[in-house]
């Protein structure tokens, strides 16, 4: 239940600034990840003992790139950023509605699934004896994301059941007048798109949990176990919360102040997943490899005698 009072511009701006601040932190983390990936790549050319730890650099690059694209898309979706920097002269409402449709498809259909699937791929290959070629990672990600994005696009742009269902099933934006009497267009997430993403999220959570359970069963190092548990919590807790908030937002009126908090929670969920994934699967393994000179750098199913395990995928 939401209070029937108008939205407060100051509150909206505060939430937008908080969202932009978190996204900026994530972009800085991604920039740091890019630096370490290429640093290890260059260093491995002159340090033979690091070459074995650089075999997944393209997959990690794919992970960081998809996270960066998702973050940039969310920045452009923020009302404060759109009004202040992107479109200082307001676009016609129909143009803004088209942009909201595009944001919905890119966010739930492409960018977020892409970095989630790449996370799963990195976890899976971390316990394999031989690393697959990078082309398999790209094929694995695109093979799942492209059909998902196509389905999202179809129901967002060409929904054949649009006239038979309530508006919130396919609504990706809403227009209303703010407290100052200005016409405002806010992006929302259509319920059909949320259902599609929710089905993906449920399947993903089960696969991710199974993959992490396999890794935990092979790792005996307490430090690595802690990292894996942190990865599980950082992915499997925010993702279901995001889906629940997406469903709630579909039935909520964007004019109400509670909608801003819901939208902030929807943003925070995948942001936490992305930050945890970059920290544990990209930054930690690279910094550990550089720190110890490459003596260990994998979750190995067959650790050497006398060694507990290794330091990351």
Automatic annotation (TrEMBL):
Keyword Transmembrane helix appears in the UniProt entry: yes
Keyword Transmembrane helix assigned: yes
Transmembrane regions: 20-40, 52-72, 102-123, 135-158, 191-216, 228-252, 258-283
Keywords (A to Z) from UniProt: Membrane, Transmembrane, Transmembrane helix
PANTHER family attached to this UniProt entry: OS08G0346600 PROTEIN, PLASMINOGEN ACTIVATOR INHIBITOR
Protein name, entry field: Uncharacterized protein LOC116194045
Organism: Punica granatum (Pomegranate)
Gene name of this polypeptide: LOC116194045
């Amino acid at each position: 239940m939401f209070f029937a009072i108008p939205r407060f511009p100051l509150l909206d701006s505060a939430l937008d600034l908080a969202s932009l601040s978190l996204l900026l932190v994530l972009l800085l983390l991604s920039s740091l990840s890019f630096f370490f990936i290429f640093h290890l790549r260059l260093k491995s050319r002159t340090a033979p003992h690091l070459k074995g730890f650089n075999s997944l650099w393209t997959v990690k690059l794919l992970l960081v790139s998809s996270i960066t694209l998702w973050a940039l898309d969310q920045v452009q979706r923020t009302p404060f950023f759109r009004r202040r920097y992107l479109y200082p002269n307001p676009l016609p409402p129909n143009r803004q509605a088209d942009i909201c449709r595009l944001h919905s498809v890119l966010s739930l259909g492409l960018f977020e699934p892409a970095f989630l699937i790449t996370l799963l791929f990195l976890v899976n290959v971390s316990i394999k004896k031989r690393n697959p070629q990078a082309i398999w990672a790209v094929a694995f990600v695109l093979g799942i994301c492209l059909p998902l994005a196509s389905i999202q696009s179809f129901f967002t742009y060409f929904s054949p059941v649009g006239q038979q269902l309530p508006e919130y099933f396919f609504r990706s934006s809403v227009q209303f007048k703010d407290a100052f009497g200005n016409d405002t267009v806010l992006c929302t997430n259509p319920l059909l798109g949320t259902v599609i993403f929710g089905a993906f999220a449920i399947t993903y959570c089960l696969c991710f949990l199974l993959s992490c359970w396999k890794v935990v069963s092979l790792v005996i190092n307490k430090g690595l176990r802690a990292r894996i548990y942190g990865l599980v919590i950082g992915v499997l807790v925010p993702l279901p919360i995001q889906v629940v908030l997406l469903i709630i937002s579909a039935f909520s009126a964007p004019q109400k102040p509670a909608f801003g908090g819901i939208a902030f929670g929807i943003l925070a969920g995948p942001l936490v997943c992305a930050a945890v994934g970059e920290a544990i699967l990209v930054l930690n393994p690279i910094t550990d490899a550089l720190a110890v000179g490459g003596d260990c750098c994998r979750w190995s199913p067959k650790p050497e005698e006398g060694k507990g395990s290794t330091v990351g995928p």
